């Protein structure tokens, strides 16, 4: 049996890797939104984060691997799920990338361009890990009743759909399985819809 990372953000990072092209398909803010939402969703599913009237609220005390719960607890006023999806979205990409590299899941090569800009080239050490994660997401999308789907697999579909990760859900699949995606999203909490709203807002701001 192929071992996979335990945290949902680490899993979503690997699911954004294209095993055919051997490179990441998403970067910057969009991947950051997905990873922040994954951290929020993990806390939500484990009961460490609840849903308040204006946004997430601390729930049962417990582990907070990415410091998201601490940020929410320290906020002087309630803020929306979309706010927390956006906050430090680029930083979490670096955090999860370095975590995966340190734990031996990926190899990161730093290349300097024009003597100034540094690009990180990422290679997954064992592509079977990505394929295993993809298989779980695919099964959640096409298989057993929603109530019996593994929570993290359901979340992977919801987050991939919201963040438009084509490695997991190409556009035609997002349209074909719209109802199923909605059911999986409803089961995994408010963070995934917040990613979709954040991207819509970005597009609106860009258009303006």
From TrEMBL:
Question: Where this protein primarily resides, as one coarse class?
Answer: Golgi
One Pfam match: GPP34
- Annotated signal sequence is none
Recorded coiled-coil stretches? none
Annotated Gene Ontology cellular component terms: cytoplasm; endomembrane system
Which keywords does this Swiss-Prot/TrEMBL entry list?
Answer: Golgi apparatus, Lipid-binding, Membrane
Question: What compartments host this protein?
Answer: Golgi apparatus membrane
In terms of Gene3D superfamilies, this protein maps to:
yeast vps74-n-term truncation variant domain like
What molecular function terms (GO) are annotated for this protein? phosphatidylinositol-4-phosphate binding
In what way does this protein cross or attach to the membrane? Peripheral membrane protein
Superkingdom of the source species: Bacteria
Q: What name does the UniProt record give this protein? A: GPP34 family phosphoprotein
């Amino acid at each position: 049996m192929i071992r996979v990372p335990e945290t949902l953000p680490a899993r979503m990072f690997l699911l954004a890797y294209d095993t055919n092209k051997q490179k990441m398909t998403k970067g910057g803010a969009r991947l950051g939104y997905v990873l922040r939402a994954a951290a929020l969703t993990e806390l939500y599913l484990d009961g460490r984060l609840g849903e308040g009237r204006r946004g997430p609220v601390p729930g049962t005390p417990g582990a907070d691997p990415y410091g998201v719960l601490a940020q929410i607890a320290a906020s002087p006023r309630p803020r929306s799920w979309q706010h927390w999806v956006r906050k430090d979205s680029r930083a979490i990409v670096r955090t999860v990338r370095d975590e995966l590299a340190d734990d031996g899941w990926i190899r990161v090569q730093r290349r300097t361009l024009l003597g100034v800009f540094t690009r990180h080239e990422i290679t997954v050490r064992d592509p079977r890990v990505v394929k295993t994660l993809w298989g779980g997401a695919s099964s959640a999308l096409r298989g057993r009743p929603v109530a019996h789907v593994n929570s993290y697999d359901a979340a992977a579909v919801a987050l991939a759909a919201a963040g438009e990760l084509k490695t997991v859900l190409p556009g035609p699949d997002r349209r074909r399985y719209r109802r199923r995606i909605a059911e999986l999203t409803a089961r995994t909490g408010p963070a995934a819809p917040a990613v979709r709203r954040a991207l819509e807002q970005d597009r609106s701001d860009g258009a303006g």
